[in-house]
Amino acid sequence: MVYSDPNSAKNDHKKIKVRVQNILEMKKNSKRISSITCYDATFARMIETTEIDVVLVGDSLGNVIQGKKSTIDVSINDIAYHISCVSSSLKTPLLVGDMPFLSSGISRAETAHNAGILLQAGAEAVKIEGASSEICEQIHFLTRHGIPVMGHIGLMPQSVHALSGYRIQGKNEHDKMRLLTEAQKLQSAGCFAVVLELIMPQTAKEISESLEIPTIGIGSGNFCDGNILVLQDMLGMNKQFKPKFLKHYLQLEDSITQALQEYCDDVRNAKSELI
Ligand code: KIV
Fold it and tell me: Where does 3-methyl-2-oxobutanoate bind (predicted)?
């Protein structure tokens, strides 16, 4: 978030810390919310120079950092470690930590304990996948005890086996009604925002219009109140990974491999004086 500071002599832009309350106000003021994932200090330092509102240390680190096929192997300590890497370089955006597979939903005590680990590592809120009655009850408990929660419905990668793969959600009327109900339940449980992943754009639009809290879409069209992408994916660090909704803002895989080969050639040929 960048505001013009009227007291500044140069009237330059001063960055104001983004908090949960700002995220709620952004929806009221029809300001769209930009969000990105991040897992390390180098990228966090660069994100800090932009106007990105929300940074998520997502369990997608299982795919892009750990090289796993799904997010199921990611542990609470993995997320806590990457939060601590990011939080040292990130001041302005709201920092959200993802609750990984089975770290929530089992019992209220375990969920609270695990959310506490992420907050102690530097997160300012947690994200939880799902909207079962157990999860909603646990979200309510966290929010009543001062832990802000972002919900997540639609495609939930932690439930990939139950959902029979990475498929678009909310295609038929029954699915749409289920998603609308889940979104309402998460709002009532106290979530300050909800991620809508890979949901039919019309369904995502109806959910967004039905909620007071903002929706953050990924692969769910243009009608959500904001959007999130996985950093390495949008930078084109894996050119094979190009789902329909994903724009590669750079072709970093090509640039990086070319740079590495150039360096390798310089070393072999003792060519550059810079090494
Ligand atoms: O883990 C993650 O990166 C996520 C986002 C894609 C929403 O959950």
Answer: 59-60, 98, 127
